[in-house]
Structures are given as C-alpha cells and as structure tokens.
C-alpha cells in the first residue's frame, strides 16, 4: 500500500531532516500508486498467492433519493472489498466520454434519457446496461405491466399465479359505470393511474365501493378488482437469479357488509412508503405464510425472460381463504433494494456475475 498524502506530510513534520525534493518524489509515487489502484487491486484467494484483479466499474444514473437509499455505505464498502467501484454518471456530459464502465445502472425518467441510454447500448455492446430502456418502459404503463404474468398462466402443484381482472379507461369518467357493468367487474375496484412513471401522482390510488361513485374517478386509469388477501402482501425482490421475499402490511379485506354500507371513493395510503414489515407480527399462518419458493422461482425465471429485465420486484397477494391462489398486482423496476436485508451481498455478487473471467494471472 502506498502512503496517503496526509501520512507523507506527517512524516515531514516528524523528521525535519527530510529534503523537500524527497518529499515531492514520495508524494508523486503515492499518487501514481493510488491511480494504479483505481484500475487494479490485489485480492487473496484462499490457498493462492495474491492475484491482480481488474476493478469492475459501475456507472450509475439515479435520482438523489434513489442514490441515498440504494448506495448505502454498507453497499459501497462491501463493493470496494470485492473490487467494485461505483461512479456517478454526470448527466451534463456525453455518456461515451465517461467511464469506461463495465456496467451501467440507471433509473431516470424522460424520453431524452431513454434516447441517450439506448444510443449508448447500441454503441457500447461491451457494457452491460441494466436494464434496456424499452423493457423498463413497458412497466410504466399499467395496461401492459401485468400482461406477461397473465400470459404465463402459471399453475402447478405449489399454487396458481394470476392477475386481477382489470379494465382500462382512457378518457370520459361518465362512461365508467357502464364500462364496468359491461366488463362484468365486481366491486370494490382499485383505481390506479394508467402511467406508472414514478411521479407522486402515479402512486395515487383509490378504492371505489359503488357503481355511482366511479364517475368521480379521473382517467386515464386502470380499474382493477380488489382481491381480499388478509391485509398481508409479499414483496418479491429479484436481482438477476436471486430472489428475496419480504412480508408487508397491506390494505385490509373489504367485507360484503362494509361494501354495502360505505358507498364512495377512498384514497389508498401508499404501502411502499409506510414500509411496515409484517415479519414480526402475530398473524394467521394461512395469510402470512410466504408463497412457496419453487413457485416464485418459476415465476421469476419466466418473468426475467419475458420482461427482459434483471432488476425488479413483484407485489404478490394470496386470495384470502384460498389454497395458494396468488395474484401479482404490481411490478416495479429497480425497487427499493435498500430495504432488503443482506442486499449488499446479493447485489455485489450479482454485479460480479456479469463480468466473468476477471481474475487474471500476473504476466511478469
Ligand atoms: N387488486 C388489488 N387487490 C387488493 N389490493 C390491492 C390491489 N391493487 C393494489 N392493492 C393494494 O394497494 C397497494 C398499492 O397498489 P400498487 O402496488 O399497484 O401501487 P403502486 O403505487 O404501484 O405501489 P409501489 O409503491 O409498490 O410502486 C398495494 O400494495 C396493495 O396493498
Ligand atoms: O423509494 P422506495 O425505497 O420506497 O422504493 C420504491 C420505488 O421508489 P424509488 O425508485 O424512487 O426509490 C418505487 O419506484 P417508482 O415506482 O416510484 O419509480 C417503486 O419501485 C416502489 O415499489 C419501491 O418500493 P418497494 O416496492 O421496494 O417497497
Ligand atoms: Mg406496489
Ligand atoms: Mg408500483
């Protein structure tokens, strides 16, 4: 390890005999060493000598909120130890002038960013861009978001996975009651903004209890049948091949009696923001038991392929009283991984898996 600049200065104060020229030389050497460490660092592999290994450079383009929640010190620290360096992408400069990157992580909205990142993907096939902008865009419209799950029609001995019945209303709120009757949807209905672009508005959901109140809703939106699920939701986080499931509190069931008593439209509080883990609560096992892992593994594997994404999560609910009949109600690109215990291990392993063959024998 080379001396750091302050250490060299400290040496100078301690030992007055040191010549200024010598100090300058040492400083230059230390700086050169530091620069080299940016490219290569040595790692000890059990039972083998230290091998030089090239750093994996990950460029990231994230909002400041996301940077704070994702790039926590524990992730950066572990990444550094594993030879991964996170570098912020400067959006005011051309992407090609930055890096070179091995991997680019991004979650930004807007047409211009989509164009930039797609261009970069085309011109830099050697870089893994997580994930393709078109695949991310697909999730930003609730009309199409769950289509892959519906097409999959997954059902095996572990359970069944579907999506709630839904209807898209593009305009004209006065037509909603008729459209709902025609489609045969059952009340209550969850009204979700059609576009899920990450804006606060795109997370403003309401619950409509009666036919008449449906006219109060503001299109464009998706109307989804509300599925009673005992107030517990499963967040299934996917990072490449890895899966982690967390239990969260969700909306309580709506009984037939309540439905007939409480006509109106009610705002739904945001579950992700509350982030109330239901892990330690004393819950009915029929409600709280995690979905069977083999079922989730099959679902995740298929969705990775069908959606063309490696970083996403699924909100899954179990129909109350059913025997493992699940519904996927939401899919989010690059969700809040910071809430996932051990995410730093899962994420760094995933990043390393994208750049195989990084161990190299020293040639001299
Ligand atoms: N069809 C449904 N049946 C029952 N509950 C639902 C349904 N759809 C949504 N919910 C409830 O409303 C919450 C918010 O819905 P959804 O996850 O679709 O919104 P979102 O704004 O995309 O959420 P996120 O913050 O996870 O992106 C869910 O977590 C769940 O508690
Ligand atoms: O910020 P949080 O940690 O709550 O993460 C949420 C994330 O916000 P962020 O991407 O701005 O961080 C949301 O993204 P947008 O839909 O708003 O784009 C969405 O993915 C939520 O589902 C995530 O919550 P989770 O599903 O993990 O509970
Ligand atoms: Mg959700
Ligand atoms: Mg969502």
TrEMBL record:
Mg(2+) 1 binds at residues 315, 330. Gene3D superfamilies: ATP-grasp fold, B domain (3.30.470.20). GO terms for biological process: inositol trisphosphate metabolic process. Keywords: ATP-binding, Kinase, Magnesium, Metal-binding, Nucleotide-binding, Transferase. Mg(2+) 2 binds at residues 330, 332. Binds 2 magnesium ions per subunit. Its cofactor is Mg(2+). Residues 156-352 form the Inositol 1,3,4-trisphosphate 5/6-kinase ATP-grasp domain. GO terms for molecular function: ATP binding; inositol-1,3,4-trisphosphate 5-kinase activity; inositol-1,3,4-trisphosphate 6-kinase activity; inositol-3,4,5,6-tetrakisphosphate 1-kinase activity; magnesium ion binding. Its EC number is 2.7.1.134. ATP binds at residues 142, 192, 224-235, 250. The keyword Nucleus does not apply. It catalyses: 1D-myo-inositol 3,4,5,6-tetrakisphosphate + ATP = 1D-myo-inositol 1,3,4,5,6-pentakisphosphate + ADP + H(+). 1D-myo-inositol 1,3,4-trisphosphate binds at residues 66, 107, 203, 235, 332, 336. Residues 57-136 form the Inositol-tetrakisphosphate 1-kinase N-terminal domain. It is an enzyme of class 2 (transferase). InterPro entries: Inositol_tetrakis-P_1-kinase, InsP(3)kin_ATP-grasp, ITPK1_N. Monomer. Belongs to the ITPK1 family. Kinase that can phosphorylate various inositol polyphosphate such as Ins(3,4,5,6)P4 or Ins(1,3,4)P3. This is Inositol-tetrakisphosphate 1-kinase.
């Amino acid at each position: 390890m080379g001396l750091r600049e302050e250490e060299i200065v400290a040496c100078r104060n301690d030992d007055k005999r040191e010549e200024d020229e010598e100090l300058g030389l040492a400083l230059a050497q230390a700086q050169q060493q530091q620069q080299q460490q940016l490219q290569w660092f040595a790692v000890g592999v059990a039972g083998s000598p230290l091998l030089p290994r090239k750093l994996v450079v990950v460029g990231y383009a994230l909002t400041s909120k996301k940077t704070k929640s994702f790039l926590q010190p524990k992730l950066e620290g572990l990444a550094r130890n594993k030879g991964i360096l996170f570098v912020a992408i400067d959006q005011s400069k051309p992407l090609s002038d930055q890096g070179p990157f091995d991997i680019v992580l991004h979650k930004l909205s807007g047409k211009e960013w989509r164009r930039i990142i797609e261009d970069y993907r085309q011109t830099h096939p050697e870089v893994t861009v997580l994930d393709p902008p078109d695949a991310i865009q697909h999730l930003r419209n609730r009309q199409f978001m769950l289509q892959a799950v519906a097409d999959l029609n997954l059902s095996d001995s572990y359970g069944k996975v579907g999506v709630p019945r839904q209807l898209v209303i593009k305009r004209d709120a006065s037509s909603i009651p008729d459209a709902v009757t025609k489609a045969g949807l059952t009340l209550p209905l969850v009204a979700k903004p059609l576009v899920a672009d990450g804006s606060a508005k795109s997370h403003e959901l309401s619950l409509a209890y009666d036919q008449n109140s449906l006219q109060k809703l503001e299109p464009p939106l998706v109307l989804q049948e509300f599925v009673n699920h005992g107030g517990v939701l499963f967040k299934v986080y996917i990072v490449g091949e890895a899966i982690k499931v967390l239990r969260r509190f969700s909306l309580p069931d709506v009984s037939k009696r309540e439905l007939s008593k409480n006509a109106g439209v009610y705002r739904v509080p945001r579950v992700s923001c509350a982030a109330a883990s239901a892990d330690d609560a004393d819950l009915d096992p029929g409600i709280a038991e995690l979905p069977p892992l083999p079922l989730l593994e099959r679902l995740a594997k298929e969705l990775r392929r069908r959606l063309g994404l490696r970083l996403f999560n699924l909100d899954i609910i179990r129909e109350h009283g059913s025997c493992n009949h699940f519904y996927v109600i939401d899919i989010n690109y690059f969700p809040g991984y910071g809430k996932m215990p051990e995410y730093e291990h899962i994420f760094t392993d995933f990043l390393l898996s994208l750049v195989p063959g990084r161990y190299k024998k020293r040639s001299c």
